[in-house]
Write a structure and sequence with these properties.
This protein is of the alpha+beta class. The chain contains 10 helices and 6 strands. Strand 5 and strand 6 form a beta hairpin.
C-alpha cells in the first residue's frame, strides 16, 4: 500500500463530492484554525494507535501537484481515510512480516534518511556567490565563437555534383535542387543544416565552409559521406550566454558537486568494511534466499 492506494481513496472521495449539490462544495479560503497540540494533535486512533495531524500534513506534502491542488476538504477526508486504512492493515500483519518485508522497510528508511542528509547540502550550495563563481569559471575568459548557417546537397559522385553545380550557377534554386537530388535527411528542408561552429562538421566540409563567402555555393567537396555542394547562408558571432541564461544549468552543477563532495566526506569518515566483495554477483538473482 503506497501512494497509489492513497490516490485511489482521495479520487473516490473527490468523485463523490463532485456529485454532491454545489452548496456543499463551498471552498472559500479562510485562515486555518490550528487545533491544540499542533502537529501532535490526534485525528484518529486505530485500536489505540494514534494518527496525528502531522502524519496527514507529511502525506499531503508528498502528493503530486495534481492532488495537492484539490480542495482541502477532499484531501483531508481522503488522507485521513487512507491513514486509518493503512494503520488497520499494518496492525493485521503484526508478527507475520517476513524477512523480505523487514529488509524492504530497512531499505526504504535508509533511502529516506539519505535524502534528508543531502537535501540541506544541495539547497545550501546554490548562492549568488556560488553561481557567479561557476559562471566566471566557465565564461569569463571564453572567446567569442563564430557560427555558420549553411545548406548542402549530398550525392554519390563528383560528376553528379558538378552537373548540379552547373544548373545552380545557371539559376536553379539551391533548395529545390536539394529536395530533388540530395540523399540525406536534410533534403526535405532544402538541405538546411542550421547553425554550427568549429568542430561540429567533418574536416573537409568545415574547411570548405571556412573558406567561403556568404551567399556563394562551393565546388564539389568530398567527405566520407559522399560529394557535397555547400551553400553558405550567413555567419554570426556568438557571445557567451548571460548568467541568467545559465542560472538553472549552473545551479544543477553546483548542487551535484556539493552532493558528491558531501557523500565523499561522509563515506571517507566512516569505517567501512566490504566482506561481500568476494561474493558471486549472480547471487543477487537468488530470491529463494529470502525464504530461508
Amino acid at each position: 500500500m503506497g501512494h497509489s492506494a492513497t490516490f485511489g481513496a482521495i479520487c473516490a472521495f473527490a468523485m463523490a463530492l463532485a456529485a454532491a449539490p454545489l452548496a456543499a462544495q463551498d471552498t472559500a479560503t479562510t485562515a486555518a484554525k490550528v487545533p491544540e497540540g499542533g502537529a501532535s494533535a490526534v485525528v484518529a486512533t486505530v485500536n489505540g494507535t494514534p494518527i496525528t495531524l502531522g502524519h496527514m500534513i507529511v502525506l499531503r506534502a508528498n502528493l503530486p501537484a495534481q492532488y495537492q491542488s484539490l480542495p482541502d476538504e477532499i484531501l483531508f477526508k481522503g488522507i485521513l481515510d487512507q491513514l486509518v486504512q493503512q494503520a488497520a492493515l499494518a496492525q493485521s500483519v503484526e508478527g507475520k512480516t517476513t524477512l523480505r518485508d523487514t529488509l524492504a522497510m530497512e531499505n526504504d528508511q535508509r533511502g529516506y534518511l539519505s535524502g534528508v542528509a543531502l537535501q540541506s547540502v544541495a539547497g545550501g550550495a546554490v548562492t549568488d556567490e556560488a553561481l557567479q563563481k561557476a559562471y566566471d569559471a566557465k565564461f569569463a575568459n571564453a572567446a567569442e565563437t563564430k557560427e555558420y548557417n549553411a545548406a548542402h546537397i549530398l550525392v554519390k559522385t563528383e560528376e553528379e555534383a558538378k552537373e548540379l553545380k552547373t544548373q545552380i550557377d545557371a539559376g536553379a534554386d539551391f533548395a529545390d535542387m536539394a529536395k530533388q537530388h540530395s540523399s540525406d535527411g536534410a533534403a526535405a528542408n532544402g538541405g538546411d543544416l542550421g547553425w554550427f561552429s568549429e568542430g561540429m562538421m567533418v574536416k573537409p566540409f568545415q574547411d570548405a565552409v571556412f573558406a567561403m563567402e556568404v551567399g556563394k555555393v562551393s565546388d564539389p567537396v568530398e567527405t566520407q559521406f559522399g560529394w557535397h555542394l555547400i551553400q553558405l547562408k550567413e555567419t554570426r558571432i556568438k557571445s557567451a550566454p548571460s548568467l541568467d541564461d545559465m542560472r538553472e544549468e549552473l545551479a544543477a552543477e553546483i548542487e551535484q558537486a556539493a552532493v558528491e563532495a558531501h557523500i565523499k566526506s561522509i563515506t571517507d569518515a566512516a569505517k567501512i568494511e566490504r566482506p561481500g566483495e568476494g561474493f558471486d554477483p549472480a547471487v543477487l538473482r537468488d530470491q529463494s534466499l529470502l525464504d530461508k
